[in-house]
Structure formats: C-alpha cells, structure tokens
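Q: Please design a sequence for this.
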C-alpha cells in the first residue's frame, strides 16, 4: 500500500496567516456581540466575556451579604468595591471586590483580594457567558463556507492568501481541527455556566483549576498543532497535511 503524497511545500507566511486569522476572529466576535446585545443589559445571569473595550464604575461598600462573606470566611473584609461593568455601551452585570487579610509592617505590606460576580442583591452568582461558544461557531462555519466557495476568508482575502480549494465538508473539518483547542475551551466555559456548581467556594476553586488546566492545554496545542508544524513543514500545518490542502499567496 503506497503512502499518500504530501502536499507541496510552500513558504509559511506566518505573519500574514496570523493577521488574517485575527481579522476573521474580530469579525466573528463582532457578529456574536450583535447577536447577544438584545439579550443583555441589567441582567444578573447572562454576561459578555472579558473585553478590551470594557469599563467599570466602582463605589466603596461598607457591608456585604452573608453569602458573599462566606466566600472569604473566616477572614473579614478590610474594604470592598461594588462595580457596575459595561462592554462599550452595554451593561454587563455587577461584581464585588473584597480586600482581606491585610498585613502591614514597617517596611512591607500584603493583602488578598477576590472579585466575585453578584446579582442585584449582592449575592454571588455563576454568570453564563456564551459569547466564546457563539464566536467559535460563527468562525468555524463562516470560514468553512468562504473557503469552500473561493478558498479565502475575509482575512485571507485581505492578506492575499488562499486555501486550494476544499469542498464544504472538508472545509468544515479543516476549521474544526484548526480551532479545536478554542472550541473545547469555549464549550467547557458554556457548560460550566449552565451546569456548574452554585456554591461559590467550590466554583472559585474549580475556576482556578480550569484556568490552570486550560492554559496548559492551550500552550501545548499552540506548540504541537501550530508552531512546530509550521517550522518543520514550512507552513503545512497538521490539519492541512492530514486533509491534503495547502495555503499559497497571490
């Protein structure tokens, strides 16, 4: 049985490909934001994810509900801030930041702080943040449709890159493999918001572990799925080699 021929090697176009992906990601994020705007506002549960264009209006508080104090028990808060958050003009829920275990000496000082999503009464909640999953779905399906028609997404067209030229099923498979780490993290975040624990002590502990595991998985994926293949095979990423595709410029 003969081995399948490898696709022809091409220059990696590393920076153009990175910029093209950034353009496509920004477009998908903007569309997901427009989809979610009618459902957001002064809501406790549904929230947008972290954003570069986010802002907060914060005021000090002198007391907090018992359910919030239980998060840092047996410590007592030394200070607290209630923040109303926004993404652009869109209200994005409230958070309370508690400062506790403050220690000061003549030469040093230390303190701990925790920021907790809260409802209108100041009780801790588990927010639902579906924007990452929606952005992933738009990016995967939208890119696949563009690639199956012309071999170019909007970002690739801007940077004069072309994928030669997959069918729609193969394009969907390519984009799924390409975005697999991001898809898994977005799906886990959505599932955690829907079905995660309602005890904030456990929620906070699990969130820290998820961030650690997710960060490690994402780093390994960046190296194994993208960086090493591009360096070794001059731009033929693993998913393109598996599918017999190549990326050219011009």
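A: Design:
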């Amino acid at each position: 049985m003969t081995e399948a021929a490898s696709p022809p090697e091409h220059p990696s176009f590393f920076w153009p490909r990175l910029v093209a992906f950034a353009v496509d990601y920004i477009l998908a994020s903007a569309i997901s934001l427009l989809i979610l705007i009618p459902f957001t506002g002064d809501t406790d549960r549904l929230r947008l994810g972290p954003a570069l264009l986010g802002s907060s209006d914060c005021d000090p508080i002198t007391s907090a509900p018992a359910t919030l104090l239980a998060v840092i028990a047996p410590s007592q808060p030394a200070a607290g801030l209630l923040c109303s958050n926004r993404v652009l003009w869109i209200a994005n829920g409230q958070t309370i930041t508690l400062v506790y275990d403050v220690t000061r000496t003549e030469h040093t000082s230390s303190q701990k702080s925790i920021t907790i999503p809260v409802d209108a009464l100041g009780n801790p909640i588990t927010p639902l943040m579906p924007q990452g999953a929606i952005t992933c779905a738009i990016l995967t399906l939208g890119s696949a449709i563009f690639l199956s028609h012309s071999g170019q997404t909007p970002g690739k067209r801007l940077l004069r890159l072309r994928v030669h030229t997959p069918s729609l099923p193969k394009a969907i498979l390519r984009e799924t493999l390409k975005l697999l780490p991001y898809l898994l993290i977005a799906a886990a975040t959505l599932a955690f918001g829907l079905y995660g624990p309602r005890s904030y002590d456990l929620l906070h502990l699990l969130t820290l572990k998820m961030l650690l595991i997710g960060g490690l998985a994402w780093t390994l994926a960046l190296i194994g799925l993208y960086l090493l293949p591009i360096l070794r095979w001059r731009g033929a990423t693993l998913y393109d080699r598996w599918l017999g595709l190549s990326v050219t410029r011009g």
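Q: Thanks. Anything notable?
A: Residues 8 and 246 are 7 Å apart (CA to CA). The first helix runs from residue 14 to 36.
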